[in-house]
Model the fold of this input.
Amino acid sequence: MTNEFKVHNLWPIPIYHGEIPVKQEWKDVVINMEYERTHVNNSDISKDRYLLNTIPDLKQDIENHCELFVRKYLTVKDSAQFYLQNSWCNIHGPEESSQIHYHASSLLSGVYYPILPKNSGNIAFHKGSIYNNIFHQSIRFDYEENNNITAETYVLNLKEGTIIIFPSHLDHSVERNNSNEKRYSIAFNFYVRGKFGKEEYQLEIK
Done:
């Protein structure tokens, strides 16, 4: 018997990981915005839910990264036009974190990090209970290694200027802020316009 083999990783969930160098004026904008407490009381959220309209150059950069993701990697045709729906800033103070959640009523979501103190927490993605990429949840195996195939939670290490884009339905959370400073992150959602499908299955979203 030969020990040579290959593995085809079918239908993975892609997460875009890029960088936009931070400008001081962007930091000034998010620091000086008006905030309110979130309904789950674990962070502050900007009252402006269309934040990126006030930072047009950052908005354009984020839209460019979304285009790179959907055209160059996902190879979505130009008939689908992705557009920014909404955007807001979250502040996590010392010892604060965010619970596992997803973004409803959108297709792609993302986060940009203009102010990220050391040890202020990374983003973690979670495999949902109905996502069976290897084995059904009726059996929980122990693995020698946690990687992008076997892990139930996958943490991305961040730095200031990091941009992450991911499918909106993907569960994610924010680790606890273990620093003594505030952590600022700009979240955003994308949806799509265009014609999709053919014949009796054609759909148009304007």
Q: What stands out?
A: The mean pLDDT is 95. The two ends are 58 Å apart (CA to CA). The chain has two helices and twelve strands. The helical segments are 24-31, 56-73.
